[in-house]
Description:
- The structure holds two protein chains of two kinds.
- By secondary structure, chain A is mainly alpha-helical.
- Chain A has helices spanning 2-11, 14-32, 38-51, 54-79, 88-99, 103-127, 129-137, 141-152, 155-158, 163-177, 203-222, 240-248, 251-266, 272-286, 298-314, 316-322, 328-339, 346-349, 353-387, 390-409, 412-430, 435-458, 473-508; strands at residues 180-181, 188-189.
- In chain A, β1 and β2 form a beta hairpin.
- The longest helix of chain A has 36 residues, at 473-508.
- Chain A starts with a helix and ends with a helix.
- Helices cover 47% and strands 21% of the residues of chain B.
- Chain B is built from ten helices and ten strands.
- Chain B has helices at residues 2-31, 50-66, 81-90, 105-112, 147-156, 171-183, 198-203, 214-219, 267-291, 300-327; strands spanning 39-43, 70-74, 97-103, 123-139, 162-166, 188-192, 209-213, 224-229, 254-262, 294-299.
- In chain B, β1 (39-43), α2 (50-66) and β2 (70-74) form a beta-alpha-beta unit.
- The longest helix of chain B is centred in the N-terminal third of the chain and has 30 residues, at 2-31.
- The radius of gyration of chain B is 25 Å and the shape is elongated.
- At the A-B interface, α3, β1, α17 and α22 of A face α2, α3, β6, α7 and α9 of B.
Amino acid sequence: xxxxxxxxxxxxxPAIILIVFAGxxxxxxxxxxxxxxxxxxxxVLLPFTFTLTPLYGLVALGAVYMGAIYGGSFAAxxxxxxxxxxxxxxxxxxYPLSKQGRALEAISVAxxxxxxxxxAGVLFLLFLSPPLAKLSLRFGxxxxxxxxxxxxxxxxxxxxxxxxxxxxxGAIGMMLGTIGVAPIGGExxxxxxxxxxxxxxxxxxxxxxLFVLPELYNMAAxxxxxxxxxxxxxKEKASFxxxxxxxxxxxGNLIRSCIIGEIVAIIPGAGGNIANLVAYNEAKRASRHPxxxxxxxxxxxxxxxxxxNVTVAGSMVPLLTLGxxxxxxxxxxxxxxxxxxxxxxxxxxxxxxxxTYAFIVSMGLAALAMVPVGLLGGRLIYRIIFRTPYYxxxxxxxxxxxxxxxxxxxxxxDVIIMLIxxxxxxxxxxxxxxxxxxxxxxxxxxxxxVGYVQAMLGGAAYNYPILRLxxxxxxxxxxxxxxxxxxxxxxxxxxxxxxxxxxxxENEK
Amino acid sequence: xxxxxxxxxxxxxVYLCLVAFILVVMPAAATAEYPEKPISYIISFNPGGxxxxxxxxxxxxxxKFLGVPVNVSHKPGGGGAVAWSEFQRTAKPDGYTIIGVNxxxxxxxxxLRKDAGYETNGFELIxxxxxxxxxxxxSKESPHKTLEDFLAYAKKNPKAATVGGSxxxxxxxxxxxRMERAAGVQVTYVPHTGTGPVIPALLGGHLTGAMGxxxxxxxxxxxxxxxxxxxxxRVESLPDAPTFKELGYDIVGGAFRGVAAPxxxxxEIVAKLANAYSETNKIIAEKQRQLGxxxxxxxxxxxxxxxxxxxxxYEGILQEIADQKKKQ
Lengths: 509, 328
């Protein structure tokens, strides 16, 4: 306990507060630009942190990370293009809200939800690290396989309109995921003799192409800005406090989303990119009016933005206790810890406890700092996007996406892949195949493949290696969830039909 | 009329002066002391990995020794092959673009892939600056206390012992295959998408053991046990871990990391870079040794000799795999 208070004392330093605000602002910018990711921002910051004390360096990294995951929501809300993979589902509700002229309200909601999520993640990290770390270790190859299967059942709820087309999109995504060097076995697949294709289709490249380009084509084709001219009744303009009250008025949704975010966060390799989709899906399932989702439902926005910010501190549970990065950006933080001679494990909480607790609490500060930074920055970005005519906006966003895609791996071929996918995505959209299932298939395809092949190899000594997939109790928990999740839309359909029938019978009476 | 032609003459004169100026200055610029503009240092792996962290450590010292900025950039993909193939195709041999290279990657990939897009000998090697020996590692909770325990279990239960590692036909994988042959056992190698995911699989009991790099034994001292290290001598930061050689198995291998220039880069530039890297290596040695790295200083002819030596070490096994692939 004493170390904890010493840690708090460490944070009462104006330099720390400055670093937190600067970090969150920088992160926000990075997150809002499609193509610039949290991982990249942290890698660029890495050399600077060598010149700082370990605490300052870690605080800066934590703040940038927090800001970047939150910043992704701006692009999602204002131009329907997730700035980072962590805010894919934010676009589903945020953009419709913007189109109704409620962009600022949507940004306020995202800000409040993100701050709550960020703080929830810090609390998980402070109080529940040991049991959560143990749970994270129970995820082996077969569990990964079932997690991926569970994720694929989300397609049913992500596909607008036809389920068949949704599944088709998922399949396209999984096929794209097989291009390049196989994650297991190292075979090169579908490279068509081009060495550069060994790199495959990077998820973020596909994300940018599939989400941003169709939107740009639309804007250009219709000659309109991202946000139509909507006059909003000044009475309807939501004040910040009314938004806070709205967000807190449904604690069930918040708590559920935070727990989902935390569980996904501790699974190594999965982060905000999966958490926001799962939380969105569950919010929709729990809602009394699931049919309204997709038209600008505040609950959906709260679910995605709270869950993805939980993963920031949440994914550090396995990192700080075991040295296992829970999400890609954590790998950079691990590097910083090691270079400062800080080995993850119990030592980190005892010998260097002051530093560690100060770092953890500083992430909570960063979450709080998002509120003023986000509200101001949000207003600014909103004004810019709202006031800029489409003939300036479209080329500007277009150039930014190309730069962002190139910067990802310094590869011009990624830019070409992005342009091809985006154009194909525009055409797909015309026939009713939407980007979310495609991206989901791309993310989950390789997780499922790695899990399946590793499980089969692990069962090499068995007569039937496939039994390995059904060995552990955690696998069975996941299998039940998969079955339940896959059957849910049909069960709901049957239930609704029964209700309708009952209703019509009652009417007859 | 005359003023117009005057103007024309003036312009032609200025133009000719410009041409003359360029002709005079250009050769001077070309013979000027290298380096005189920023150097781009490409890392063919993701940020946060061993190659990246090393480059970040080197960056500032290299700048001091070379006197120009050194910009580290990443071009990950295909286990390094994306960057290496593009480098050999497009990089100018002027010393301003250099790239991190790894053994055994640059030996194995061109041999086993149909279109890796680059050649092992297509680099002008500057230096191999460190070595991370392979090590057989188990969880602290594992019943296998020594290499003999592990091998006895593997002998009794063919294929049942799962050995995780980073990548396929990587240093980890090839070492596992050599261990199988040397000890006459059969294990199942389970590739992972990097060293990172191997650790939770090991700690969670999803693997019997792992063939990883020696650093893991240092980084995860509290949770992992190193059964044997594939180095000539014991690693400084792991004094209690025996080598395979001590235990009677002639297995030495791991990953060497180094840096290379495009083929055809002038030897004096390569020498200058090698010197900067060597000096840098001496400065960062202490930090790296603590993390479990073994520092090396192979430049010039030694650098090529090292590739040849490692090629010979792996050739048998690589050939076997390549033949198997052809049969399939």
